[in-house]
Automatic annotation (TrEMBL):
Domain of life: Eukaryota
Cross-referenced InterPro entries: MeTrfase_RsmB-F_NOP2_cat (IPR049560), MeTrfase_RsmB-F_NOP2_dom (IPR001678), Pre-PUA_NSUN2 (IPR057285), PUA_NSUN2 (IPR057286), RCMT (IPR023267), RCMT_NCL1 (IPR023270), RsmB/NOL1/NOP2-like_CS (IPR018314), SAM-dependent_MTases_sf (IPR029063)
Ranges of Basic and acidic residues composition bias in the record: 410-419, 441-453, 576-585
PROSITE patterns cross-referenced by the UniProt entry: NOL1_NOP2_SUN, SAM_MT_RSMB_NOP
Binding site for S-adenosyl-L-methionine: C192, A193, A194, P195, G196, S197, K198, D229, D256, D289
Protein's recorded name: S-adenosyl-L-methionine-dependent methyltransferase
Native species: Pseudomicrostroma glucosiphilum
Pfam families assigned to the protein according to its UniProt record, in alphabetical order: Methyltr_RsmB-F (PF01189), Pre-PUA_NSUN2 (PF25376), PUA_NSUN2 (PF25378)
Places the protein is found: Nucleus
Membrane-traversing stretches: none
Region called Disordered, residue ranges: 1-48, 399-464, 554-648, 866-926
Keyword set includes Electron transport: no
Gene Ontology process terms (BP): tRNA methylation
Presence of keyword Lipid metabolism: no
Length: 926
């Protein structure tokens, strides 16, 4: 059998030169030279691990996840490193330019490049991703970094990633959001969102559904994206990521999705005479990209080869089911939820989907799997399984006989264990360790081996060379064999016979050999009901507007008080006769009297969840007793969380009164039109006082923050406490200190990232027309005093403008034979005698490379000069003596630094900065 670059059946994959040089070594079992005994080692140190795991092969071969004739291609693909894949941000003004740059510059530049003596295919768009937005290069990241041929391309990727125009993301990870079909008016929940690759796609889709064209982008759509993660550090990663894709519609929360709370919001019907009432928030779209064993990521996380055991997946099943049920309970009729994992294991996939549908009433209930087989037809995928096998825990002790011929024991385990204990014999569980131990036992005896060549992976005899798996036919059978084990294992792991009826074939399995990717599982579920039911975003907006106009707010009354007890507040919110999705739903899918919920809570993962998330099921008084007075004091000092829950230390989210003098000065200076959503401006202090940063939120976000009734401690509103809200909206205005502050009419500048949502409301007096020549000057000039600005309209208009923040509107134009095809808006600061482009270093470099094909910014020049030992030491012109600090402060600060400063100054504790630093090295997950 050749272990070569066999082209994958799915086309497009497997054949690229994206793996290291294969070395062969003698297999532990003594039969060398086969693909499954291959060791991968590239000259860039790709991996020296043994990429074999016979238990893995035996387990999945028995599950029948791919046909025998594809087995070799399937396993072979897993042993190769992943290609590099990335996506351009949909709907940004730069997106089309960047795609053109790929086509016209990098595809030709990288054609004919070789790696390890073989040609590498030039970058190509992923055929199944809309609008040519996603691309693939058939070399792994480390090669891109090290090979000189890729240097310019690598720089391009780094620059554009830093400014949010591009996201590196594994191809399969891009799939789930595509099936959600997010629209601008949708209320969207991403239940397990960190580190945020898919959240980014959801944000993009909300603003510009699957398009590369900025004309169809809505900078402040009616919908909402709520990105949640139960791990607080990872949730702060989401906050950090959000700075790359600023959106007024984004909220970041930090709760256990398996105990997703009921959220109340103000709502008003379409009838103008109706009053504002309270509604439970129902989402139009939900993504449940749940925690999983991750064996579909073998190509990236090579340690899994060694660590994988048959029990990896099943411990997560209860948590996955709880999260899915909570999601389905929070969906509006006609709403859609996508459940996904990067695991191949049916126990984490089809078994979870089937149990959830059953729990919601089965095939006649209110949840159905959507047939998406005609959507994204270019994406090759396999159907979901309608049957699978279960090997519960370390089940080997349940059997007699050789590993290849397991017979159920004659006596139930418990009786035998008792006897053994009496006789002082070792516990039989030791045998399980043997099955799951790293050594791989092959079961061809030596005589067979001598008889002929080893069967190839695609021949029927191959399975005999792998260990047997201790499968148990049903939960009832397990109960007969080992009642105590059965008590700890959920019945919902096993197929119940109704899988085909439930439509499990509609699930999707993506395998690595199909299109040179990792492995992934995706299921699209829908809550039955009219798909055209109005999104709650419209009712929330009507309610918020009515309250702005003096209508009475809703009465949260007793329900709000009840919500103070988290134990009361975790029940499901089904409509239309669906069963309630309770926190203990796992219990309901097991044999009566079987405490499967115990199994759930005894699983390691669950325990970790409990450690990391609010104790939402504990009783308040009991917890209060446990708290030391010191801890109580700390909580009082730093904010409040739910009683008994993790303290919630965030500064409050306060909307600034529109009568605030700073808001009035912003309105006047920028000539904002009357329909600018001034009421949606947030600050992070209890006094609602604009000190350094003002955030802009969408109306749906305002409804969410102000809903839920009265808050606690420093928090005026309850929802932020309940959801442990970490971030809302996007930074819009920053206070600009200047030596000439006294002369400023308005001390606030527009933050560049927030230009898209603010630009439509700006008066023409805040915008200054410019050309590419003016932009080239501002990018490359150390001291951009008025006298040095190229003669023209920009210079003349600028001189007449007031000191402060303006927008430079660069029209399509030409400079030194470089053509700018599409106009761009950029923030500038008009100082006393100079003007500055208000972009940080990364933005300047990226902009410069994108337009001029090289970095012409002062930053690059400074680097170059310092390398040559000739840094410009010329003093700034006298005109700038009292204003250089304004420019330098802005230009010198990169985003991360700005973020840290702002966080530590505004939030008292630099929690976000710390979290970002802690997780900085973490690679984006699929
Ligand atoms: C597979 S990752 C999600 C990847 C993410 N969707 C992306 O595309 O970047 C699973 C995430 O779930 C989070 N998680 C684990 N248990 C959770 C729970 N009970 N509730 C919410 N999030 C949870 C983990 O912290 C982890 O960040």
């Amino acid at each position: 059998m050749s272990r070569t670059k066999k082209r994958a059946p799915g086309g497009g994959g497997g054949g690229g030169k994206n793996w290291g040089k294969g070395g062969k070594r003698k297999a532990p079992g003594g039969q060398g030279g086969q693909a499954n005994q291959q060791q991968q080692k590239g000259n860039d140190g790709w991996s020296t691990l043994d990429m074999n795991n016979k238990r893995f092969e035996a387990y999945y071969m028995d599950q029948g996840i791919v046909p025998q004739e594809e087995w070799e291609a399937f396993m072979d693909a897993f042993r190769q490193s992943l290609p590099t894949t990335f996506r351009f941000t949909a709907g940004k003004t730069t997106t089309r330019q960047l795609i053109t740059q790929m086509q016209e510059r990098f595809v030709p530049e990288l054609s004919g490049v070789e790696f390890e003596g073989e040609p590498v295919k030039p970058p190509q768009p992923l055929s199944w991703y809309p609008e040519g937005l996603a691309w693939q290069v058939d070399v792994r990241k480390s090669v891109l970094r090290k090979q000189p041929d890729f240097q310019n391309f690598q720089k391009f990727l780094v620059n554009e990633t830093a400014v949010g125009s591009l996201s590196r993301q594994e191809a399969v990870s891009m799939i789930p959001p595509l099936f959600l079909d997010v629209q601008p008016h949708h209320l969207v929940l991403d239940m397990c969102a960190a580190p945020g690759s898919k959240t980014a796609q959801l944000i993009e889709a909300l603003h510009s559904p699957m398009t590369s064209s900025p004309e169809h982008s809505d900078p402040c759509p009616p919908g909402l994206i709520m990105a949640n993660d139960s791990d607080v550090k990872r949730a702060y990663m989401l906050v950090h990521q959000a700075t790359r894709l600023p959106s007024p519609n984004l909220c970041v929360t930090n709760v256990d999705a398996g105990a997703w709370p009921k959220i109340q919001v103000p709502w008003k019907g379409q009838d103008p005479s109706s009053s504002v009432v309270v509604k439970d928030l129902k989402f139009d779209r939900i993504l449940g990209d749940v925690p999983c064993s991750g064996d579909g990521t073998l190509r990236k996380n090579v340690a899994i080869w060694k660590e994988w055991t048959t029990t990896n997946g099943q411990g997560l099943h209860p948590l996955q089911l709880r999260i899915l049920l909570k999601g389905l309970g929070s969906l509006r009729p006609g709403g859609r939820m996508v459940y996904s994992t990067c695991s191949l294991n049916p126990l984490e996939n089809e078994a979870v989907i089937a149990a959830a549908i059953r729990e919601c009433g089965g095939k006649d209930g209110n949840i159905r799997l959507v047939d998406v087989s005609n959507q994204i037809p270019e994406l090759k995928r396999a159907k979901g399984l309608t049957t699978w096998k279960v090997c519960p825990g370390k089940g080997r002790h349940l059997f007699d006989g050789s590993a290849n011929n397991m017979q159920p024991k004659q006596e139930p385990k418990s009786a035998k264990a008792d006897k053994a204990a009496t006789a002082g014999e070792p516990a039989e569980e030791d045998e399980d360790a043997a099955f799951n131990a790293p050594e791989q036992t092959t079961h061809r005896d030596d005589t067979t081996a001598e008889k002929g060549p080893e069967p190839t992976a695609e021949s029927p005899g191959y399975r005999q060379t792998l260990p047997a798996v201790p499968w148990v036919d049903s939960w009832q059978r397990l109960k007969e064999l080992d009642p105590s084990m059965a008590n700890r294992v959920p019945k919902s792991l096993w197929p119940a016979g109704d899988e085909a009826e439930l439509g499990l074939e509609r699930c999707m399995r993506v395998y690595p050999h199909y299109q040179n990717t990792g492995g992934f599982f995706i299921a699209v579920l829908e809550k039955k009901g009219a798909a055209d039911v109005e999104s709650q975003s419209a009712g929330i907006a009507r309610a918020v507007e009515a309250m702005d106009n003096g209508a009475a707010g809703p009465s949260y009354g007793a329900s709000s008080k009840r919500a103070l007890s988290p134990a009361d507040d975790t029940e499901g919110q089904e409509e239309g006769g669906a069963k309630k999705a309770k926190v203990d739903e796992v219990q309901q899918v097991t044999e009566p009297g079987t405490p499967a919920a115990e199994a759930a809570s005894s699983s390691k993962v669950d325990q970790q969840q409990k450690d990391a998330t609010p104790e939402t099921t504990s009783s308040a008084p009991a917890t209060a007793e446990r708290q030391s007075s010191k801890q109580k004091q700390r909580e009082t000092d730093s904010g409040y969380g739910l009683p008994g829950g993790t303290p919630y230390k965030e500064d409050p989210f306060e909307f600034i009164p529109i009568t605030n003098e700073q808001v009035i000065s912003i309105h006047k200076f920028f000539g904002l039109s009357l329909n600018f959503p001034s009421r949606n401006l947030i600050v992070r202090n209890a006094e609602a006082n604009p000190l350094r940063t003002i955030y802009l939120a969408s109306t749906a976000v305002r409804g969410l923050i102000t809903g839920g009734g009265q808050g606690m401690g420093v928090h005026r509103h309850f929802n932020p406490v309940k959801l442990r809200l970490l971030n809302a909206g996007t930074k819009a205005f920053a206070r600009q200190e200047s030596n000439k502050s006294g002369d400023l009419e308005c001390k606030w500048r527009i933050i560049g990232d927030a230009l898209p949502p603010i630009r439509p409301y700006l008066a023409s007096t805040s915008v200054i027309a410019a050309t590419l020549t003016d932009l080239a000057f501002l990018l490359s000039e150390y001291y951009p005093i008025f006298d040095r600005i190229p003669a023209g309209d920009f210079k003349e208009t600028l001189k007449d403008r007031k000191m402060g923040s303006h927008v430079m509107d660069v029209a399509p134009s030409e400079h030194e034979s470089i053509v700018l095809k599409e106009g761009i808006d950029l923030p500038i600061w008009r100082a006393g005698a100079s003007v500055n482009l208000m972009l940080d270093k990364a933005d300047r470099s990226a902009l410069s490379c994108r337009i001029f094909g090289k970095d012409v910014s002062t930053n690059a020049r400074m680097k170059l000069e310092s390398n040559k030992g000739a840094v410009s030491t010329a003093a700034p012109p006298a005109e700038l003596a009292d204003e250089v600090d304004t420019a330098a402060a802005e230009e010198g600060a990169d985003k991360a630094q700005m973020l840290k400063t702002e966080v530590s100054e505004e939030q008292g504790a630099p929690a976000e900065a710390e979290a970002v630093a802690d997780v900085a090295g973490e690679a984006a997950q699929p």
